[in-house]
Amino acid sequence: MISTLLTKSAKDQSRCVVEAYFSPVPAGAAGSDVTRGTTGCIGWPDSVAACIVEAMGSEASVQRLVEYQHRDLTYSYDLASDAQRAYRRTVINESNGTTVDAILYDEETLPSHLYPCLNEVTDRRTIHRLTWRVNNRMYLVVDLEKEQDNKIASYVYIRYQHADNVDTKRIDQDYQVLADRIGRHLQKLSS
């Protein structure tokens, strides 16, 4: 899946990021009330994090982030470590499957001082993020978005950061093994 998305992308792939979002029920399934959009599925129950911990183990890194959006710029602030990051994302390609939606981005990291005044923010999100490292370029991520202690969205996705010198066949194999492993555990939640 990853190499297929990359072959349809721009010539400069050094900043490409692929995010493959898992959906709780197949697209178009009978009785499906899942909300799907360009950032994945938001219909996961609260127990999704426990399900992923069961599949991957408890060695996840934990972050509490606040993200501010202004047009195509995002400013991310980690509440625990005081880390800051500004970046610009552009969608290059999308692939919608029955249980996985993949998006290929051109992600450009910017100096944090380039983000405009916080009075011009169009969106603010608080995210509790659990991340498991699969290899040097691939991570499994669970994002739980909250708005004043109320859960508003849950995302489960695989994030892959591309480099030109990477063996894409090996990355596709790692992706498939991880997707099968996670898919089996997530299927228990959605049924």
Please describe the structure with a list of short key phrases separated by commas or semicolons.
alpha+beta; 3 helices; 44% strand; 191 residues; 8-stranded antiparallel beta barrel; single chain; mRNA Triphosphatase Cet1, Chain A; 20% helix
> How do the SSEs run, as a string of H and E?
HEEEHEEEEEEEH
CATH class identity: Alpha Beta
Broad structural category: alpha+beta
What is the general shape?
A: globular
**CATH topology (level 3) name:** mRNA Triphosphatase Cet1, Chain A
Percent of residues in β-strands:
35-45%
Q: Low-confidence runs (pLDDT<50, min 5 residues)?
A: 30-41
- Compute the number of structural domains: 1
The level of helicity is 10-25%
Radius of gyration: 17 Å
Report the biggest beta sheet as strand number plus sense, adding barrel if it closes: 8 strands, antiparallel, barrel
Strand order of the biggest β-sheet: 1-7-6-5-4-8-9-10
Strand element count: 10
Q: For the terminal residues, how far apart are their CA atoms? A: 25 Å
Helix count, per DSSP?
A: 3
What's the rounded overall pLDDT mean? 82
Question: Mind telling me which CATH architecture this is?
Answer: Alpha-Beta Barrel
Summarize the structure in words.
There is one protein chain. The protein is α+β, with helices and mostly antiparallel strands. The chain has one domain (2-190): Alpha-Beta Barrel (mRNA Triphosphatase Cet1, Chain A), CATH 3.20.100.20. It has three helices and ten strands; from the N terminus they run αβββαβββββββα. The chain has helices at 2-7, 48-56, 168-190, and strands at 16-22, 36-37, 40-41, 61-70, 73-78, 84-96, 100-110, 123-133, 138-147, 150-161. An eight-stranded antiparallel barrel has the order 1-7-6-5-4-8-9-10. A hairpin with a 2-residue loop joins strand 9 (138-147) and strand 10. Helix 2 (48-56) packs across helix 3 (168-190). 23% of the residues are buried.
